[in-house]
Amino acid sequence: MDVHVRDAVEADLPAVLEIYNQSIPGGWSTADTAPVTVAERVEWFRKFDPKRRPLWVAEVDGRIVGWIGLTSFYGGRPAYDATAEVSTYIAKDFQKKGLGGKLKRLMIAQCPRLGVTTMLSMYFDHNPATHRLNTALGFEKVGHLTEIATINGRKYGLIIAALRIPPSE
Ligand SMILES: CC(C)(COP(=O)(O)OP(=O)(O)OC[C@H]1O[C@@H](n2cnc3c(N)ncnc32)[C@H](O)[C@@H]1OP(=O)(O)O)[C@@H](O)C(=O)NCCC(=O)NCCS
């Protein structure tokens, strides 16, 4: 599969959100319970910064089929500058083809340039794909907030996993 990864531009936002919205009905990826709109997410998009907190899209044959982004932790308080939360979403028909792993590996490799020494991944404790992928990449479970989310009337927990990345020399 020939995958082209590039920084997202605002015109990509509908495609980015279409992929995100695909994951909502499953109830195991995000705490959003209804589809989000471009208008609701423009501000979110504008906080990304290719130099520190990138949002990348992955294209196959010119179609956006996945994305990965880093967001600041805890509202971006300065003491957490070197910590970022990662989010990865792959279009349903492109899942389980190694794309999520590829994007995460690429992002981890860029962390020294981005000034990120701790990458956090927060995911529901019933999300096996993310758990499997993170474990393979060396993330360590550092927290488990049990029964913190209610989806379709059921309680679920949130795992917090961290990957330490040595800073650049
Ligand atoms: C989680 C996600 C990003 C993984 O990306 P992907 O491209 O499908 O994953 P990969 O093909 O790189 O596979 C990574 C590992 O996860 C496993 N995996 C993928 N989907 C799985 C599933 N539905 N159930 C169990 N394991 C799964 C793969 O087998 C692989 O493990 P292995 O290398 O030991 O075989 C993708 O499934 C996705 O977008 N899911 C919906 C959104 C989501 O949950 N995002 C994370 C929010 S915190």
Shape: globular
**Are any ligands bound, and if so which?**
coenzyme A
Tally of distinct domains: 1
Major sheet attributes: 7 strands, mixed
Q: What low-confidence regions span 5 or more consecutive residues with pLDDT below 50?
A: none
Assess the beta-strand content as a share of residues.
Answer: 25-35%
CATH superfamily: Gcn5-related N-acetyltransferase (GNAT)
What fraction, in percent, of the residue positions are helical? 25-40%
What is the chain-wise order of helices and strands?
EHHEEEHEHEE
Q: What fold name goes in the CATH topology slot?
A: Aminopeptidase
Widest sheet, order of strands? 1-2-3-4-5-7-6
Please tell me the overall pLDDT: 96
Secondary-structure content class: alpha+beta
Beta strand count: 7
Count the DSSP helices: 4
Question: Your description of this structure?
Answer:
With about 170 residues, this protein is an alpha+beta fold. Helices cover about 25% and strands about 35% of the residues. The protein has four helices and seven strands, in the order βααβββαβαββ. A seven-stranded mixed β-sheet has the order 1-2-3-4-5-7-6, sandwiched between helices. It is globular. The structure holds coenzyme A. Coenzyme A (COA) binds next to strand 4, helix 3 and helix 4.
Question: Main attributes?
Answer:
Aminopeptidase, 7 strands, 27% helix, seven-stranded mixed sheet, alpha+beta, globular, single chain, 34% strand, binds coenzyme A, 169 residues
Which helices and strands occur, and which strands form pairs?
Blueprint: E1 4-7, H1 13-22, H2 38-46, E2 55-60, E3 63-72, E4 83-90, H3 99-114, E5 118-124, H4 128-137, E6 140-151, E7 154-164
Parallel strand pairs: 4-5
Antiparallel strand pairs: 1-2, 2-3, 3-4, 5-7, 6-7
The structure holds coenzyme A.
Residues 23, 29, 88-90, 95-101, 123, 127-130, 132-133, 136 line the site of coenzyme A.
